């Protein structure tokens, strides 16, 4: 269950990062509220995950899921341009996240 909390926390990190961009500097109330809800949900789920997972594992996974997901959202929905070399490092980050998961007990 701790890994489900952690991955879900990472997904909510993607939500709040995306809605923060859509809030245009917190000037659009609906997206600002969604940003705050996403942040709270993400932090609560991260806190739940760290009850049983070490911080040294949970935090990098949380930020990694959020980072990779936010990159994908940026490319797909906002037209961000990413170089081939950057994609290589994104893939390495994803491999690292998966590697941490499969080499961690708990």
From TrEMBL:
Q: Which UniProt keywords apply?
A: Cell membrane, Membrane, Transmembrane, Transmembrane helix, Transport
Presence of the UniProt keyword Calcium in the record: no
Protein name as it appears in the record: DMT family transporter
Give the InterPro entries listed for this entry.
Answer: EmrE-like, Small_drug/metabolite_transptr, Small_multidrug_res
What membrane topology was assigned to this protein in its record?
Answer: Multi-pass membrane protein
Q: Origin organism of this chain?
A: Companilactobacillus baiquanensis
Q: Which domain of life is it from?
A: Bacteria
Membrane spanning stretches: 27-47, 59-78, 84-103
Which taxonomic lineage is given here? Answer: Bacteria, Bacillati, Bacillota, Bacilli, Lactobacillales
Q: Where does the protein end up?
A: Cell membrane
Q: Identify the SUPFAM superfamilies for this entry.
A: Multidrug resistance efflux transporter EmrE (SSF103481)
Keyword check for NADP = no
Q: Which family does it belong to?
A: Belongs to the drug/metabolite transporter (DMT) superfamily. Small multidrug resistance (SMR) (TC 2.A.7.1) family.
């Amino acid at each position: 269950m701790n890994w489900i909390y952690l991955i879900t926390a990472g997904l909510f990190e993607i939500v709040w990062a995306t809605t923060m961009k859509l809030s245009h500097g917190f000037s659009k109330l609906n997206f600002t509220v969604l940003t705050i809800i996403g942040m709270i949900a993400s932090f609560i789920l991260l806190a739940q995950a760290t009850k049983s997972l070490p911080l040294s594992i949970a935090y990098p996974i949380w930020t990694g899921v959020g980072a990779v997901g936010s990159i994908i959202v940026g490319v797909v929905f906002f037209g961000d341009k990413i170089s081939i070399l950057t994609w290589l490092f994104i893939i390495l980050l994803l491999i690292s996240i998966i590697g941490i998961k499969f080499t961690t007990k708990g």
